[in-house]
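Extended Data, panel c. Modelled sequence:
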Amino acid sequence: MTKTKNTPLPLEWKYTEGLTSYDEAMAVMEQRVADIHQGTVSELVWFLQHPPLYTGGTSANIDDLLLPDRFPIYETGRGGQYTYHGPGQRVVYVMLDLTRRGRDLRKYVFQLEQWIIETLAEFNVTAERREGRIGVWVTRNDGREEKIAAIGVRIRKWVSFHGICINVEPDLEHYSGIVPCGISEHGVTSLADLGLPIAMHDVDAVLKHKWIEIFETPHE
């Protein structure tokens, strides 16, 4: 069945249990993006977790890699700098045909941010954008601003891949091997660190619920 502009195949939701190696995830995304562009498969939203690792985006500064021997390091074509992935962090890779969604990269990044913000709001977490900083941020009671979710986007032939990660309950000490996203003056946090021991499947359920409103509902 071939997808056309007027008859797209239904979006696929995929959930992978356990830990998925970064190499495997990249191989799956590369093939899926090519197939979406050819019109032979549906768009895909893929929920997974990685073993502990660092990734460097196209803007990564080698000086921000503080402990290069700690975890495997992967150079990737997504935007952004160094970040951490590991157990307890919900990674969602989003492969969408942006040609049929308007070819508006700025809008797409805004939608990813809004998806995270509205999801976290369901758990009574006020998360916000910050001018000049990628990702989604929270302000602690003492005024500290900390990052709770990251965004990394890559586009090929107007098909998106990579996506978002939300810190549910990762080991935050693992971030000490890098300067996350090149920002040294602010820390990172998680739902558990905020005193919210929320199950991963509950986060997943809200993300899926919020998807239609954010990505599939026309907005003026």
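The chain has a mean pLDDT of 92. This feature is highlighted in the accompanying rendering.
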